[in-house]
Automatic annotation (TrEMBL):
Disordered: annotated segments: 244-293
Name of the molecule in the record: Translation initiation factor 2
Domain of life according to the entry: Bacteria
Compositionally biased spans, kind Low complexity: 270-288
Organism: Streptomyces paromomycinus
Length: 414
Protein backbone atom coordinates (compact mmCIF):
# COMPACT_ATOMS: atom_id res chain seq x y z
CA UNK A 1 0.00 0.00 0.00
CA UNK A 2 1.22 3.46 -0.88
CA UNK A 3 0.62 6.49 1.32
CA UNK A 4 -2.86 7.89 0.74
CA UNK A 5 -4.17 4.78 -1.02
CA UNK A 6 -7.53 3.25 -0.15
CA UNK A 7 -8.00 -0.52 -0.23
CA UNK A 8 -11.23 -1.83 -1.77
CA UNK A 9 -11.83 -5.55 -1.31
CA UNK A 10 -14.22 -7.61 -3.45
CA UNK A 11 -15.35 -10.71 -1.57
CA UNK A 12 -17.50 -13.61 -2.71
CA UNK A 13 -18.67 -16.81 -1.12
CA UNK A 14 -19.46 -19.82 -3.31
CA UNK A 15 -22.71 -20.86 -4.95
CA UNK A 16 -24.89 -19.72 -7.87
CA UNK A 17 -26.35 -16.74 -6.00
CA UNK A 18 -23.06 -15.43 -4.63
CA UNK A 19 -21.39 -12.31 -6.00
CA UNK A 20 -19.06 -14.46 -8.11
CA UNK A 21 -21.89 -16.64 -9.39
CA UNK A 22 -24.73 -14.11 -9.53
CA UNK A 23 -27.00 -14.70 -12.54
CA UNK A 24 -27.36 -10.95 -13.13
CA UNK A 25 -23.67 -10.72 -14.07
CA UNK A 26 -22.95 -8.18 -11.36
CA UNK A 27 -19.30 -9.20 -11.07
CA UNK A 28 -18.21 -8.44 -14.67
CA UNK A 29 -19.73 -4.96 -14.42
CA UNK A 30 -18.15 -4.49 -11.00
CA UNK A 31 -14.70 -5.48 -12.25
CA UNK A 32 -15.05 -3.08 -15.16
CA UNK A 33 -16.10 -0.26 -12.80
CA UNK A 34 -13.17 -0.97 -10.48
CA UNK A 35 -10.86 -0.66 -13.47
CA UNK A 36 -12.51 2.22 -15.29
CA UNK A 37 -13.48 4.51 -12.42
CA UNK A 38 -10.88 4.07 -9.68
CA UNK A 39 -7.50 5.74 -10.29
CA UNK A 40 -4.83 3.08 -9.90
CA UNK A 41 -2.63 5.19 -7.62
CA UNK A 42 -5.47 6.28 -5.32
CA UNK A 43 -7.03 2.84 -4.87
CA UNK A 44 -5.63 -0.64 -4.28
CA UNK A 45 -8.06 -3.40 -5.27
CA UNK A 46 -8.08 -6.97 -3.92
CA UNK A 47 -10.31 -9.98 -4.50
CA UNK A 48 -10.92 -12.57 -1.77
CA UNK A 49 -12.79 -15.61 -3.08
CA UNK A 50 -14.11 -18.59 -1.13
CA UNK A 51 -11.83 -21.66 -1.52
CA UNK A 52 -14.75 -23.62 -2.99
CA UNK A 53 -14.71 -21.27 -5.99
CA UNK A 54 -11.07 -22.15 -6.63
CA UNK A 55 -11.61 -25.88 -6.09
CA UNK A 56 -14.92 -26.04 -7.96
CA UNK A 57 -13.76 -24.29 -11.12
CA UNK A 58 -10.02 -24.86 -10.85
CA UNK A 59 -7.32 -22.22 -10.30
CA UNK A 60 -6.61 -21.94 -14.02
CA UNK A 61 -10.21 -21.11 -14.86
CA UNK A 62 -10.54 -18.60 -12.02
CA UNK A 63 -7.31 -16.89 -13.08
CA UNK A 64 -8.52 -16.84 -16.69
CA UNK A 65 -11.75 -15.11 -15.68
CA UNK A 66 -9.86 -12.51 -13.64
CA UNK A 67 -6.78 -12.12 -15.85
CA UNK A 68 -7.69 -8.80 -17.45
CA UNK A 69 -8.66 -7.35 -14.08
CA UNK A 70 -5.30 -8.52 -12.67
CA UNK A 71 -3.48 -6.84 -15.54
CA UNK A 72 -5.31 -3.66 -14.57
CA UNK A 73 -4.11 -3.89 -10.96
CA UNK A 74 -6.47 -6.29 -9.15
CA UNK A 75 -4.66 -8.40 -6.53
CA UNK A 76 -6.25 -11.84 -6.29
CA UNK A 77 -5.61 -13.39 -2.88
CA UNK A 78 -5.00 -17.17 -3.21
CA UNK A 79 -7.25 -19.60 -1.29
CA UNK A 80 -4.86 -19.97 1.65
CA UNK A 81 -3.50 -16.45 1.32
CA UNK A 82 -3.60 -13.66 3.92
CA UNK A 83 -7.28 -12.81 3.59
CA UNK A 84 -7.45 -11.80 7.27
CA UNK A 85 -4.74 -9.18 6.81
CA UNK A 86 -6.44 -7.90 3.67
CA UNK A 87 -9.74 -7.64 5.52
CA UNK A 88 -8.14 -5.80 8.45
CA UNK A 89 -6.54 -3.28 6.07
CA UNK A 90 -9.64 -2.72 3.92
CA UNK A 91 -11.26 0.70 3.67
CA UNK A 92 -14.36 -0.85 2.07
CA UNK A 93 -15.62 -4.33 1.21
CA UNK A 94 -18.00 -5.16 -1.63
CA UNK A 95 -19.40 -8.59 -0.85
CA UNK A 96 -22.35 -10.89 -0.37
CA UNK A 97 -23.86 -13.24 2.22
CA UNK A 98 -20.58 -15.03 2.93
CA UNK A 99 -18.83 -15.10 6.28
CA UNK A 100 -15.89 -12.90 5.21
CA UNK A 101 -18.23 -10.03 4.31
CA UNK A 102 -19.93 -10.54 7.66
CA UNK A 103 -16.57 -10.41 9.45
CA UNK A 104 -15.79 -7.14 7.67
CA UNK A 105 -18.98 -5.58 8.99
CA UNK A 106 -18.33 -7.02 12.45
CA UNK A 107 -14.92 -5.31 12.72
CA UNK A 108 -16.38 -1.97 11.63
CA UNK A 109 -15.37 -1.90 7.95
CA UNK A 110 -17.83 -0.26 5.52
CA UNK A 111 -19.67 -2.95 3.55
CA UNK A 112 -21.57 -2.71 0.27
CA UNK A 113 -23.60 -5.77 -0.70
CA UNK A 114 -23.26 -6.73 -4.36
CA UNK A 115 -25.39 -9.86 -4.01
CA UNK A 116 -27.58 -11.05 -1.17
CA UNK A 117 -30.09 -13.92 -1.61
CA UNK A 118 -32.39 -13.43 1.38
CA UNK A 119 -34.35 -16.58 0.50
CA UNK A 120 -31.25 -18.71 1.12
CA UNK A 121 -30.86 -17.52 4.71
CA UNK A 122 -32.62 -18.09 8.01
CA UNK A 123 -34.28 -14.72 8.75
CA UNK A 124 -33.15 -15.05 12.37
CA UNK A 125 -29.48 -15.57 11.48
CA UNK A 126 -26.82 -12.89 12.05
CA UNK A 127 -25.99 -12.86 8.33
CA UNK A 128 -29.62 -12.11 7.49
CA UNK A 129 -29.40 -9.14 9.84
CA UNK A 130 -26.44 -7.88 7.81
CA UNK A 131 -28.65 -7.98 4.72
CA UNK A 132 -31.26 -5.84 6.47
CA UNK A 133 -28.79 -3.17 7.59
CA UNK A 134 -26.00 -2.89 5.00
CA UNK A 135 -26.41 -0.76 1.86
CA UNK A 136 -26.72 -2.45 -1.55
CA UNK A 137 -24.56 -1.97 -4.60
CA UNK A 138 -26.41 -0.34 -7.48
CA UNK A 139 -24.67 -2.18 -10.33
CA UNK A 140 -26.01 -0.03 -13.14
CA UNK A 141 -24.80 3.22 -11.57
CA UNK A 142 -21.24 4.59 -11.33
CA UNK A 143 -19.27 2.86 -8.59
CA UNK A 144 -17.05 5.68 -7.34
CA UNK A 145 -19.90 7.90 -6.06
CA UNK A 146 -21.31 4.87 -4.25
CA UNK A 147 -17.98 4.26 -2.52
CA UNK A 148 -17.73 7.93 -1.60
CA UNK A 149 -21.24 7.80 -0.14
CA UNK A 150 -20.48 4.58 1.75
CA UNK A 151 -17.34 6.01 3.35
CA UNK A 152 -18.85 9.42 4.07
CA UNK A 153 -21.86 8.04 5.94
CA UNK A 154 -20.25 5.09 7.68
CA UNK A 155 -19.74 4.90 11.43
CA UNK A 156 -17.53 2.15 12.92
CA UNK A 157 -20.36 1.15 15.27
CA UNK A 158 -22.92 0.87 12.48
CA UNK A 159 -22.94 -2.93 12.74
CA UNK A 160 -22.13 -3.20 16.44
CA UNK A 161 -24.91 -5.74 16.92
CA UNK A 162 -23.23 -7.98 14.34
CA UNK A 163 -19.97 -7.83 16.29
CA UNK A 164 -21.76 -9.14 19.36
CA UNK A 165 -23.33 -11.95 17.32
CA UNK A 166 -20.11 -13.02 15.58
CA UNK A 167 -19.03 -15.25 18.46
CA UNK A 168 -20.25 -16.01 21.95
CA UNK A 169 -16.71 -17.01 22.98
CA UNK A 170 -14.09 -15.10 20.98
CA UNK A 171 -10.80 -16.96 20.70
CA UNK A 172 -12.15 -20.12 22.31
CA UNK A 173 -13.22 -22.17 19.29
CA UNK A 174 -10.30 -24.61 19.45
CA UNK A 175 -10.95 -25.53 23.08
CA UNK A 176 -14.72 -25.76 22.64
CA UNK A 177 -14.54 -27.87 19.48
CA UNK A 178 -11.92 -30.24 20.91
CA UNK A 179 -14.02 -30.75 24.04
CA UNK A 180 -17.08 -31.53 21.91
CA UNK A 181 -15.24 -33.94 19.61
CA UNK A 182 -13.54 -35.85 22.42
CA UNK A 183 -16.85 -36.01 24.25
CA UNK A 184 -18.52 -37.55 21.20
CA UNK A 185 -15.73 -40.15 21.05
CA UNK A 186 -15.96 -40.82 24.79
CA UNK A 187 -12.30 -39.99 25.30
CA UNK A 188 -10.47 -37.78 27.77
CA UNK A 189 -8.96 -34.61 26.32
CA UNK A 190 -5.17 -34.25 26.07
CA UNK A 191 -3.58 -32.15 28.77
CA UNK A 192 -1.92 -29.76 26.30
CA UNK A 193 -3.83 -26.55 25.50
CA UNK A 194 -5.98 -26.66 22.37
CA UNK A 195 -4.99 -24.41 19.53
CA UNK A 196 -5.59 -24.02 15.80
CA UNK A 197 -2.33 -24.20 13.81
CA UNK A 198 -1.85 -21.72 11.04
CA UNK A 199 -2.07 -23.07 7.52
CA UNK A 200 0.95 -22.62 5.28
CA UNK A 201 0.19 -21.05 1.93
CA UNK A 202 1.96 -23.00 -0.83
CA UNK A 203 1.90 -19.87 -2.98
CA UNK A 204 4.13 -18.06 -0.52
CA UNK A 205 5.94 -21.06 0.97
CA UNK A 206 5.71 -19.48 4.39
CA UNK A 207 3.27 -18.04 6.86
CA UNK A 208 1.31 -15.36 5.00
CA UNK A 209 1.72 -12.18 7.00
CA UNK A 210 1.34 -9.34 4.53
CA UNK A 211 -1.00 -8.23 1.79
CA UNK A 212 0.28 -9.78 -1.45
CA UNK A 213 2.35 -7.45 -3.62
CA UNK A 214 0.45 -5.51 -6.24
CA UNK A 215 0.59 -7.17 -9.66
CA UNK A 216 2.44 -5.30 -12.41
CA UNK A 217 0.22 -2.89 -14.31
CA UNK A 218 0.29 -4.45 -17.76
CA UNK A 219 -2.91 -2.77 -18.93
CA UNK A 220 -2.56 0.47 -20.92
CA UNK A 221 -2.84 3.55 -18.71
CA UNK A 222 -4.73 6.70 -19.63
CA UNK A 223 -2.93 9.43 -17.70
CA UNK A 224 -4.35 12.82 -16.76
CA UNK A 225 -1.89 15.47 -15.57
CA UNK A 226 -2.07 18.94 -14.07
CA UNK A 227 0.92 21.25 -14.03
CA UNK A 228 0.51 23.86 -11.33
CA UNK A 229 1.93 27.31 -11.80
CA UNK A 230 5.45 27.44 -10.45
CA UNK A 231 5.65 29.29 -7.13
CA UNK A 232 8.84 31.16 -6.26
CA UNK A 233 11.36 29.18 -4.19
CA UNK A 234 9.24 26.03 -4.53
CA UNK A 235 9.83 23.04 -6.81
CA UNK A 236 7.40 22.50 -9.70
CA UNK A 237 4.33 20.47 -8.78
CA UNK A 238 2.53 18.08 -11.12
CA UNK A 239 -0.61 16.08 -10.26
CA UNK A 240 -0.96 12.71 -11.98
CA UNK A 241 -4.09 10.54 -12.16
CA UNK A 242 -3.86 7.19 -13.95
CA UNK A 243 -6.73 4.95 -15.08
CA UNK A 244 -6.15 1.38 -16.21
CA UNK A 245 -7.73 0.41 -19.51
CA UNK A 246 -7.50 -3.33 -18.91
CA UNK A 247 -11.09 -4.27 -19.70
CA UNK A 248 -11.28 -2.38 -22.95
CA UNK A 249 -13.05 0.60 -21.40
CA UNK A 250 -12.01 4.22 -21.47
CA UNK A 251 -11.53 6.10 -18.20
CA UNK A 252 -14.55 7.49 -16.48
CA UNK A 253 -15.09 11.23 -16.84
CA UNK A 254 -13.02 13.00 -14.18
CA UNK A 255 -15.02 14.13 -11.16
CA UNK A 256 -12.82 17.05 -10.26
CA UNK A 257 -9.95 17.36 -7.79
CA UNK A 258 -8.82 14.61 -5.48
CA UNK A 259 -8.95 15.57 -1.79
CA UNK A 260 -6.12 17.84 -0.58
CA UNK A 261 -3.77 17.01 -3.39
CA UNK A 262 -4.96 17.68 -6.91
CA UNK A 263 -5.49 21.14 -8.37
CA UNK A 264 -8.78 22.95 -8.20
CA UNK A 265 -9.80 22.73 -11.84
CA UNK A 266 -11.10 19.43 -13.29
CA UNK A 267 -8.80 17.53 -15.63
CA UNK A 268 -9.44 17.17 -19.31
CA UNK A 269 -10.83 13.86 -20.56
CA UNK A 270 -8.20 11.40 -21.74
CA UNK A 271 -7.83 11.22 -25.52
CA UNK A 272 -8.61 8.04 -27.41
CA UNK A 273 -5.39 8.29 -29.44
CA UNK A 274 -1.81 8.83 -28.45
CA UNK A 275 -1.92 12.51 -29.35
CA UNK A 276 -2.70 14.82 -26.46
CA UNK A 277 -4.95 17.79 -27.26
CA UNK A 278 -3.49 21.28 -27.54
CA UNK A 279 -2.87 22.79 -24.13
CA UNK A 280 -3.89 26.30 -23.27
CA UNK A 281 -3.39 28.14 -20.02
CA UNK A 282 -6.17 27.58 -17.53
CA UNK A 283 -7.70 30.62 -15.77
CA UNK A 284 -6.84 28.82 -12.50
CA UNK A 285 -3.49 27.55 -11.32
CA UNK A 286 -3.35 24.29 -13.29
CA UNK A 287 -2.66 23.30 -16.87
CA UNK A 288 -4.28 19.97 -17.79
CA UNK A 289 -2.84 17.41 -20.16
CA UNK A 290 -3.21 13.76 -21.07
CA UNK A 291 -1.15 10.93 -22.48
CA UNK A 292 -1.11 7.15 -22.83
CA UNK A 293 1.45 5.00 -20.99
CA UNK A 294 1.83 1.35 -22.02
CA UNK A 295 3.95 -1.40 -20.46
CA UNK A 296 6.05 -3.17 -23.08
CA UNK A 297 4.69 -6.53 -21.85
CA UNK A 298 1.08 -5.45 -22.50
CA UNK A 299 -0.96 -8.52 -23.53
CA UNK A 300 -2.38 -6.74 -26.59
CA UNK A 301 0.80 -5.60 -28.34
CA UNK A 302 -1.18 -3.46 -30.79
CA UNK A 303 -1.72 -1.01 -27.91
CA UNK A 304 1.98 -0.13 -28.01
CA UNK A 305 1.33 1.78 -31.22
CA UNK A 306 -0.73 4.25 -29.16
CA UNK A 307 1.89 4.79 -26.47
CA UNK A 308 3.29 8.22 -25.74
CA UNK A 309 5.31 6.65 -22.92
CA UNK A 310 6.58 3.05 -23.00
CA UNK A 311 7.22 1.45 -19.60
CA UNK A 312 9.08 -1.52 -18.19
CA UNK A 313 10.50 -2.62 -14.86
CA UNK A 314 13.41 -4.58 -13.42
CA UNK A 315 15.45 -4.78 -16.61
CA UNK A 316 19.08 -5.89 -16.07
CA UNK A 317 20.42 -2.95 -18.12
CA UNK A 318 17.76 -0.22 -17.92
CA UNK A 319 19.71 2.39 -19.90
CA UNK A 320 20.21 -0.05 -22.77
CA UNK A 321 16.56 -1.08 -22.63
CA UNK A 322 15.33 2.52 -22.87
CA UNK A 323 17.55 3.08 -25.90
CA UNK A 324 16.27 -0.06 -27.62
CA UNK A 325 12.66 0.73 -26.67
CA UNK A 326 12.91 4.15 -28.31
CA UNK A 327 14.26 2.42 -31.41
CA UNK A 328 11.55 -0.26 -31.45
CA UNK A 329 8.68 2.15 -30.78
CA UNK A 330 9.60 5.18 -32.85
CA UNK A 331 6.23 6.80 -32.36
CA UNK A 332 6.65 7.13 -28.57
CA UNK A 333 8.11 10.23 -26.96
CA UNK A 334 9.81 8.60 -23.97
CA UNK A 335 10.78 5.22 -22.55
CA UNK A 336 10.95 4.65 -18.80
CA UNK A 337 12.19 1.75 -16.69
CA UNK A 338 11.43 1.33 -12.99
CA UNK A 339 14.76 0.31 -11.48
CA UNK A 340 13.90 0.26 -7.75
CA UNK A 341 10.86 0.79 -5.51
CA UNK A 342 11.76 4.49 -5.37
CA UNK A 343 13.50 5.12 -8.71
CA UNK A 344 12.65 5.43 -12.39
CA UNK A 345 15.02 5.96 -15.33
CA UNK A 346 13.59 7.89 -18.30
CA UNK A 347 15.11 8.42 -21.75
CA UNK A 348 14.17 11.69 -23.45
CA UNK A 349 13.71 12.11 -27.22
CA UNK A 350 17.16 13.73 -27.44
CA UNK A 351 18.76 10.67 -25.82
CA UNK A 352 19.46 12.14 -22.40
CA UNK A 353 18.68 10.03 -19.35
CA UNK A 354 16.76 11.40 -16.39
CA UNK A 355 16.82 9.56 -13.07
CA UNK A 356 13.85 10.30 -10.79
CA UNK A 357 14.21 9.17 -7.18
CA UNK A 358 11.92 9.63 -4.19
CA UNK A 359 13.49 12.15 -1.81
CA UNK A 360 13.37 11.53 1.95
CA UNK A 361 11.17 13.81 4.00
CA UNK A 362 12.22 15.71 7.12
CA UNK A 363 11.84 12.49 9.13
CA UNK A 364 13.98 10.54 6.67
CA UNK A 365 10.98 8.55 5.43
CA UNK A 366 10.16 8.26 1.72
CA UNK A 367 6.47 8.21 0.77
CA UNK A 368 6.57 5.72 -2.08
CA UNK A 369 4.20 5.19 -4.98
CA UNK A 370 4.63 3.41 -8.31
CA UNK A 371 7.76 5.08 -9.74
CA UNK A 372 6.19 4.93 -13.21
CA UNK A 373 4.12 7.88 -11.99
CA UNK A 374 7.35 9.89 -11.92
CA UNK A 375 7.83 9.26 -15.63
CA UNK A 376 4.33 10.50 -16.41
CA UNK A 377 5.02 13.69 -14.46
CA UNK A 378 8.24 14.21 -16.41
CA UNK A 379 6.34 13.62 -19.67
CA UNK A 380 3.79 16.27 -18.66
CA UNK A 381 6.62 18.74 -18.00
CA UNK A 382 8.56 17.96 -21.16
CA UNK A 383 5.62 17.98 -23.59
CA UNK A 384 4.88 21.55 -22.59
CA UNK A 385 8.30 22.59 -23.83
CA UNK A 386 9.74 23.23 -20.39
CA UNK A 387 13.48 22.67 -19.83
CA UNK A 388 14.26 19.55 -17.84
CA UNK A 389 17.14 21.47 -16.21
CA UNK A 390 14.56 23.45 -14.24
CA UNK A 391 13.80 20.25 -12.31
CA UNK A 392 17.33 19.79 -10.95
CA UNK A 393 16.30 21.43 -7.68
CA UNK A 394 13.48 18.91 -7.27
CA UNK A 395 10.00 17.99 -8.44
CA UNK A 396 6.80 17.32 -6.50
CA UNK A 397 4.44 14.67 -7.88
CA UNK A 398 0.93 14.47 -6.45
CA UNK A 399 -0.98 11.22 -6.84
CA UNK A 400 -3.44 9.23 -4.78
CA UNK A 401 -3.96 12.15 -2.40
CA UNK A 402 -0.26 12.31 -1.43
CA UNK A 403 2.61 14.57 -2.46
CA UNK A 404 5.93 12.92 -3.33
CA UNK A 405 9.09 15.00 -3.60
CA UNK A 406 11.63 13.74 -6.13
CA UNK A 407 15.32 14.19 -6.75
CA UNK A 408 16.19 14.67 -10.43
CA UNK A 409 19.48 13.78 -12.10
CA UNK A 410 20.28 14.29 -15.80
CA UNK A 411 23.02 12.42 -17.67
CA UNK A 412 24.16 12.85 -21.29
CA UNK A 413 23.07 10.40 -24.02
CA UNK A 414 24.68 6.96 -23.83
Amino acid sequence: MSAGQRLVVVNSTWGPRSLFGDADDVLPRLLESLTRELPVDAYRRCAVLHPNIWHGHGPGQVRAWLRRAEQAGLTVVPPLGPWRQVLAAADAVIGDHGSVTYYAAAIGTPVLLGAFPEADLDPASPVAELGRTAPRLRPYEPLLPQLDELLAHHHPDRHAQLTALASSSPGSSAALLRRAFYGLMGLAEPSAPAYLPRLLDPTYGDLPSDIPPAPPLLAPLQVLTHLRDHRPAAPPEIAVTRHADGLGAHPAPPRGPEPTATPASPPAAAPTTSQAPPHTASPTTSHPGAHTAVHEDVPDVTRLALADLVLHDSRPEPAAWTREAMRRHRHCAMAACVTAPDTCLVRLPDGRLVTLTAAPGPDGHRDLCDPAVYASALYAWYERGKPVEELLDGLVVVTGGTSHRLQVTITPPR
